[in-house]
Design a protein that fits this description.
The structure holds 4 protein chains of 4 kinds.
Chain A (H helix, E strand, L loop, with lengths): L7 H4 L13 H15 L4 E5 L2 H10 L22 E5 L7 H9 L6 E5 L1 H5 L20 E3 L6 H16 L24 H7 L15
Parallel strand pairs in A: 1-2, 2-3, 3-4
Helix pairs in contact in A: 2-6, 3-6
Chain C lengths: L5 H24 L6 H4 L19 H24 L1 H4 L18 H23 L6
Helix pairs in contact in C: 3-5
Chain D lengths: L35 H10 L3 E7 L2 E6 L4 H10 L7 E8 L8 E9 L4 E9 L6 E3 L8 H12 L2 E3 L31 H9 L9 H9 L5 H8 L7
Parallel strand pairs in D: 2-5, 6-7
Antiparallel strand pairs in D: 1-2, 3-4, 4-5
The chains are: A alpha/beta, B alpha+beta, C mainly alpha, D alpha/beta.
Chain lengths: 211, 437, 134, 234
């Protein structure tokens, strides 16, 4: 309520100030404290579907220990989760499940799309697989690889931690819940989804069916 | 079209109820010719103080479903009255894409389908394709493929043991056994460059020969792995909770298991000694000396014992394979199928043409079909390929063992408690990528 | 033997203060964003059929009662432990310690009787089969 | 695993003199030796067995579709055959679209260590109907449901023929048919819209909805939609 309201006296002088420069000393220090706490105890919600889930287990096991990032506690219920790690390909039949679990997670929440199949449909350019989960839920960090090496996933997690450290409580758009449009349940305009899911690279040649 | 209500009346399986009408563990008695049969107690109605049945989803996103399986359970208190599995949540159209790829391009798909047993799948597909092309592979390639499929059986059983322990409640064996799995990963990575999605074989040979010094790593692994296995079985095998949770749970008798089409450790735990490596051998498995562990009662505990024993047999096979590893070429010399070496491709004209045809169009098998089965860690894994002479198969059918094993879960689960559902599901060792293809 | 209850007061005060602080700060900075889907119960990502408030079978009640019975038993041991020294010393404590040679096992036997009584109850419950689930 | 328990020996019941199996080498392309069961089938069923050919050492017996259940039952029950293990039920559609769709059954006889492939040819014109073998092998339940889901072949006699891999409301047809485009018939956003805007009861099968109804667990809006006769889900 009171702590993070912008100081209105400064902005009405007709000069456009960068919002972050207007915060008082208190809020930046409080932001740092809150972000530091959040960044170093991101509880993952392992939405593991396919091969990336096994690589995620290998990352969480003893050799590439995720506990170093405070992520040891796997929360399988969305109620206690902070970051949804979508490890593996998402077929269309699973899309509503992913959407529902993301919306049942309390704010603040982030999303890591682990692997090529989650980020862009990967090698599955066919009738059954969603071409990238960013058409279903907003994604913060995309981790390339099929499956990404544990070091690759950890680099993705560290990038997310940097993103969390740069957040400001005053910026309300960060914690904005997506409201899909009630009739089609899509939260991105359909032409944009088609354009995002367009085949690229060598799979363009597979347009002929049956040959 | 509205669906037809299931006409089959799935009544509570009689073996689940005892004389006083209370559901209980499945008691096993030996009948006259000595094999163990569940007691067929008379089905009695639950006492009238029956609470309402509850319909819950052990749904696609659940720690204990090993992927995205969904079991809808009708529960009376803690007892499962009816179990309706829903699959297809990881259906990615593998078989449809196989019809648009050449034979060597399909091999990366075989890793992602049963992602715990990728080298084993590559070997299976390569055998199927070589049967379709009618080519014989070299000796060194055969032994390397035996090593690859046994290593992949080990890492698949390691993941099974790790997740099985977590499901029952023991966390530390998961960390021990995953450490061993990382050692196999580093070996596979030094061999072929990928930890998990290996794409190890090619039609007619291997992706790469083993680097020098690799056999010492394997020998070192063979020497030290059984010790970790003994530690795990020392912690688990005679553990009161472990045994109490698993004996008599989800039992399947021998002929019922065969009728349901179960295969692999599930079938052998029920007492049927069917192993594709022994009964329909491939890659000269009949010349290796190993034995097939067979259980008696077919319950979850026997499946656990069979898989642990199978891991030890893998070590025996790896040991023999390492000793007999011959030198010589890995790839077959028939350039209709295998790319000629780069040096020859640049120098002489004929291999340049071969190289060009291979890369542009891929090898073309004669018209025909072939079904080759392989003993994968989950059961009998087969590839049925139909070719019409072009370089892309007409049909690439994957015979998924865990798909058929999972279809028996309603039979195994009804009458048991909710916590037994998790133990039974973990004992079937399902991989959703292979089930939903 | 008056005893100053200040430390106890401080403890209770600090606990109350801490709880109040946590509630107030989180209330101040919290901004709930309820959405329709977020309110529905979580059932592994599936829409829910049926609700949890149903008639349960009586077995659950049996387990709950047994737990409460044997759990409260340990609660009675706490004051016993606090006063164990004075109980097992035949004469008054000198500077909080029992003069040598004056120890008796009165405290121990007292608690043993209490535990044996509950043990009889436990054996009865065990043989009656209430611990068996089905 | 005590020593005194003799397991059901698969592949050794044919008596001691059967040679231990060996890895097949240099498998002939067309002229391999046929499986003895093929001649037994021809002797027993005569004209319904239209052709037997041996490709890469595997015998394929092509039979008429309506009598498949009877043939498989005979192979399963006959003491000389004992094909007790159904490996696979699948279908093959060729690229030239006039050629009939083949439904394929792979059977193994564990005691006699034999493998055979039955095929039934379904002309494209008539409805794709094949008798189900569920009453002989319980394992065929899901395989036939998947074959229906992917090819649209109805298995007569199957207790609960529904889609198993795709969701029940899947309107795009049968994916593995050759006339089905690789990326599906609708645009990506349309496919996503269809699946995301499904009603909750579309995710449950009739069986579960009737169970929930029996215990008055159905939410009001679902009950209203069911009352209005909308099709139900998986």
């Amino acid at each position: 309520m009171g702590l993070d309201r912008l100081d209105t006296r400064r902005t009405d002088t007709g000069v456009e100030y960068v919002p972050s420069s207007q915060e008082s000393w208190v809020t930046t220090k409080l932001d740092f404290l809150v972000n530091w706490g959040r960044a170093n105890s991101l509880w993952p919600m392992p939405f593991g579907t396919a091969c990336c889930a096994i690589e995620f287990m290998a990352t969480a096991a003893s050799k590439f220990d995720l506990a170093r990032f405070g992520m040891e506690r796997m929360s399988f219920s969305p109620r206690q989760a902070d970051v949804l790690i979508c490890a593996g390909r998402v077929p269309f039949k699973l899309a509503p499940v992913l959407r529902r679990i993301w919306m049942q997670m309390p704010q603040p929440k982030w999303c890591i799309s682990m692997g090529a199949c989650a980020s862009s449909g990967g090698m599955f350019d066919n009738y059954a697989v969603v071409q990238g989960i960013d058409t279903i839920i907003p994604v913060d960090v995309y981790v390339p690889g099929c499956p990404p090496r544990p070091e690759g996933l950890m680099y993705g997690i560290m990038m997310l931690q940097q993103k969390v450290m740069r957040e400001r409580m005053a910026d309300k758009s960060l914690r904005h819940e997506i409201e899909p449009d009630p009739s089609s349940q899509l939260y991105i305009a359909p032409p944009l989804i088609d354009e995002l899911s367009e085949p690229f690279g060598n799979s363009i040649h597979q347009t002929r069916s049956g040959l | 079209m509205a669906t037809v209500k299931r006409t089959v009346e799935v009544e509570l399986s009689t073996t689940g109820l005892d004389a006083r009408g209370r559901p209980q563990r499945v008691p096993l008695v030996t009948d006259q010719e000595g094999n163990l049969v569940p007691v067929n107690a008379a089905p009695a109605v639950e006492p009238e103080l029956e609470g309402e049945h509850m319909l819950i989803n052990i749904g696609p996103q659940h720690p204990a479903t090993h992927g995205v399986l969904r079991l809808v359970l009708e529960l009376d208190g803690e007892t499962v009255v009816r179990c309706i599995p829903h699959i297809g949540y990881l259906h990615c159209g593998f078989e449809k894409i196989g019809e648009y790829r050449q034979y060597n391009q399909i091999i990366p798909w075989t890793d992602r389908e049963d992602y715990l047993n990728s080298p084993g799948n590559n070997v299976a597909f390569a055998l199927g394709a070589e049967r379709l092309f009618g080519i014989e592979i070299t000796e060194r390639c055969k032994v390397l493929r035996v090593i690859a499929s046994e290593l992949s059986r080990l890492i698949s059983h390691c993941v099974w043991l790790g997740t099985f322990c977590i499901d029952i409640g023991a966390f530390t064996p998961f960390l021990w056994i995953f450490q061993q799995r990382e050692r196999v990963y580093t070996m596979l990575e030094s061999w072929i460059g990928a930890r998990m999605t290996t794409t190890l074989t090619r039609v007619g040979g291997m992706g790469a020969d083993i680097p020098d010094g690799w056999t010492e790593d394997l020998a070192n692994f063979i020497r030290t792995f059984p010790r970790v296995l003994d530690e795990c079985s020392a912690v688990l095998t005679k553990n009161g909770i472990w045994v109490g949770r698993m004996v008599g749970v989800g039992a399947m008798s021998a002929d019922e298991a065969v009728n349901y089409g179960l295969s692999g450790p599930l079938l052998r735990a029920s007492g049927v000694a069917y192993d594709v490596r022994k009964d329909f051998p491939y890659l000269d498995y009949e010349t290796y000396d190993f034995d097939v562990p067979v259980g008696q009662a077919g319950d979850v505990y026997d499946r656990y014992l069979v898989r642990m024993e199978e891991m030890r047999q893998c070590i025996r096979i790896l040991d023999q394979a390492l000793k007999r590893l011959p030198d010589g070429p890995v790839n077959v010399s028939d350039h209709r199928v295998i790319l000629p070496p780069k040096s020859k491709a640049m120098s002489d004209m004929e291999s340049m043409i071969h190289h060009f045809k291979q890369v542009m169009e891929g090898p073309r098998p004669p018209i025909g079909e072939a079904y080759v089965a392989v003993e994968s860690p989950k059961g009998e894994k087969g590839y049925y390929m139909v070719s019409d002479g072009t370089s892309k198969p007409v049909r690439w059918r994957i015979r998924p063992p865990s798909f058929v094993n999972l279809s028996a879960i309603p039979r195994m689960v009804e009458g048991h408690l909710l916590s037994d559902v998790i133990a039974i599901n973990a004992s079937i060792d399902i991989v959703m990528g292979e089930i939903d293809r | 033997m008056e005893r100053s209850y200040l430390p106890l007061l401080l403890l209770v005060g600090f606990v109350a203060l801490n709880a109040a602080l946590i509630l107030i700060i989180s209330h101040l900075t919290l901004r709930p964003r309820p959405t329709a889907v977020k309110q529905t119960p979580y059932e592994s990502g599936m829409p829910v059929l049926g609700d949890a408030r149903e008639r349960f079978s009586v077995k659950f009640y049996m387990v709950a009662v047994l737990f409460i019975l044997f759990d409260i038993e340990t609660v009675f041991m706490i004051p016993w432990g606090a006063h164990f020294r004075r109980l097992s010393c035949t004469v008054d404590l000198v500077a909080g310690a029992c003069p040598d040679g004056r120890l008796s096992l009165f405290g121990f036997w007292e608690m043993l009787v209490f535990v044996v009584i509950l043990l009889v109850g436990f054996i009865y419950v065990w043989k009656k089969g209430a611990l068996q689930w089905d | 695993m005590s020593a005194d328990f003799t397991p059901v020996l698969a592949g050794r019941a044919a008596g001691g003199n059967v040679p231990a199996p060996v890895t097949p080498k240099n498998v002939p392309y067309r002229d391999g030796t046929a499986n003895p069961s093929a001649d037994a089938l021809r002797a027993r069923f005569g004209t319904t067995v239209s052709r037997v050919d041996v490709v890469w050492g595997e015998t394929t017996v092509i039979v008429d579709a309506p009598r498949v259940n009877e043939i498989v039952r005979w192979l399963h029950d006959d003491p000389t055959q004992r094909y007790d293990y159904l490996v696979d039920v699948t279908a093959v559609e060729y690229r030239d679209l006039e050629r009939p769709i083949e439904v394929v059954w792979h059977l193994r006889s564990l005691p006699f260590r034999r493998f055979i492939r039955l095929k039934a040819l379904l002309q494209k014109g008539q409805p794709l109907e094949v008798p189900s073998v569920w009453d002989i092998y319980k394992g065929a339940d899901w395989m036939e449901r998947e074959c229906f889901d992917m090819f649209g072949i109805r298995f007569v006699g199957h207790p609960d023929l529904r889609r198993i891999l795709m969701w029940e409301q899947y309107k795009e047809g049968f994916p593995l048919r050759k006339d089905f485009p690789l990326r599906g018939r609708f645009s990506r956003s349309e496919q996503l819209r269809q699946i995301l805007s499904q009603n909750p009861e579309a995710k449950y099968s009739m069986e579960e909805i009737s169970i929930a109804e029996a215990f008055e667990d159905l939410p009001a809006d679902v009950r209203a939609r069911l009352g209005s006769g909308e099709p139900v889900g998986e």
